[in-house]
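Blackboard transcription, Thursday session:
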Amino acid sequence: MARMLTFSIFRYNPQDPASVPHMQEFRLAETESMTLFIALNRLREEQDHSLQFDFCCRAAICGACAMVINGRPGLACHSKTKDLPDKITLMPLPVFKLIGDLSVDTGSWFRGMAKRIESWCHTKKVFDPTAQEERMDNALAERIYELDRCVECGCCVAACGTALMRDDFLGAVALNRVARFVLDPRDERSEQDYFDIIGTDEGVFGCMGLLGCQDVCPKRLPLQEVLGKLRLKMAFAAANHLLPKFLRREIKL
Ligand code: SF4
Ligand code: SF4
Ligand code: FES
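(Written on the board underneath:)
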């Protein structure tokens, strides 16, 4: 017999002065292969048209459906109800601005982050549309692609103790993005340039290393490795000019 699921969902509309934050319960019979995406759409269609949440791709690609599922940030379209208990609590991601109910504005946060870390290839080369594409070693291209798989869902930020305590913390997603440009030979930024962006408490030295980010990343990005190497690289970047030449080191990612 199908399980009867109870959903306890955060409700609040910041645009409505009469709205008060509260949890609302819904009940829904589980169906085969039900995801939270399917369940939420059924709740909205059949029980409450005003329920707000975000979706786009339904395939763990757009990152829009991230929310806190029974206390853990995750993608609703990627979460099967069969893997969850009968009672499912859904909250919006913290850190990001609330739009309403389970919908948050990750876009503004990510745009601000991209500006702060200057998330583009810095090169003095002038673009020549007639020139052949620059070649890149396959193994290196794959390493860059691995870090580029981030879907900007915000789960790692929502799970990060530092990001919860200070709103200027760049977070694992930004540090991962920086690592992607450090690896990219087309980006001509120096180690000092990167240090100026992330060699601070808002950057790599604010990270407490408890790795909530890696635990919840739905794309299983190697955040632990990236953060560890980046921290070491920045520590040496800070120390190198104080050290005699034979002790200086450049840490490769
Ligand atoms: S390891 Fe660093 S970035 Fe990841 S959750 Fe912890 S403090 Fe945040
Ligand atoms: S690093 Fe992972 S958890 Fe963080 S935004 Fe990217 S995909 Fe989401
Ligand atoms: S709807 Fe796109 S990641 Fe879930």
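Lecturer's comment: The chain has a mean pLDDT of 95.
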